[in-house]
Amino acid sequence: MVKRLVLASPRGYCAGVERAVEIVARALELHGPPVYVRKQIVHNAHVVRDFEARGAVFVESEEEVPAGAAVVLSAHGVAPSVYEQAAARGLETIDATCPLVSKVHAEARGFAAQGYTIFLIGHAGHEEIVGTMGEAPEAILLIESAEDAARVQPPQTERLAYVTQTTLSVDDTEEIVAVLRRRFPALRAPAKEDICYATTNRQRAVKRLLGTIDVLLVVGSRNSSNSNRLVEVARARGVSAHLIEDETAIEEAWLEGVETIGLTSGASAPESLVRRVVAWFTARGVMQVDELEAPPEAVFFRLPPEVRRGGLATSS
């Protein structure tokens, strides 16, 4: 019988997600519905459904947006071609790209301009990877695993560098980079690591939990990279872990013979969903709910000028 629930800290929204969600909210205030959003603004089904109810229209391509309309670009970033096509259609683009993703784009452009072949470590098909590869497609080679790193054959070995997706497993990425460095000792790294502070902090928080829990629940959507990595961190250390959209996805079988549950959430999951899971357990008699202490994440990103007009700006 479950007796205790332990909440990881930090968890949930990062500064980039907070910024992106606020941008869509401000765009709806300024323009009124509909406001078009290219792809999911962040990878969370609850967030998307909430904005749809408020008048946001999510589209797969900027080509689906009526000419002259406003379109918000998701937090995951886009290739330069998207800006070009949006401009050709006369769209008002509101860029919600996380500044830490923009940093990776800038690194890729910079390395490419200097003649480097770039190893991009990440997951094929993820929107962040699609956008980054679009910055210098002729110079970038995608590396998804240590096995890829062991067999990749770059067109030249004099100038090599790597950049990474921001939401990767810290441990897996270190392994991949180690393989690349063994093969290519002169490999250049980003000036500052690309895996974002929030991804690193949430994985570290899960590791702190693991010695004291029997099962870990991660609140997040299936297409959320950072949420999936939290599940993997636990499983890699022998702790059963499950990704859940909300409390309705919890299976009673997971809880058989379990006394202590760990709970965290991905960087795109609202805290309200965590509170719903907590309420689900307390309604079933779990009396002890503890939260690990951690320093606050004092990171804020300024809103873009397109949604700071009309006195709507804040200090974020």
What does the model show?
The chain is flat and about 60 Å long. Strand 4 (70-73), helix 3 (80-88) and strand 5 (92-95) form a beta-alpha-beta unit. The model is unreliable at 311-316 (pLDDT under 50). Helices cover 36% and strands 17% of the residues. The longest helix is centred in the first third of the chain and has 17 residues, at 15-31. The chain has three domains: 4-13 and 197-291, Cobalt-precorrin-4 Transmethylase, domain 1, CATH 3.40.1010.20; 15-97 and 301-311, Rossmann fold, CATH 3.40.50; 100-183, 4-hydroxy-3-methylbut-2-enyl diphosphate reductase, catalytic domain (Cobalt-precorrin-4 Transmethylase, domain 1, 3-Layer(aba) Sandwich). By secondary structure, it is of the alpha/beta class.
Attribute tags:
36% helix, disordered C terminus, Cobalt-precorrin-4 Transmethylase, domain 1, Rossmann fold, 3 domains, single chain, alpha/beta, four-stranded parallel sheet
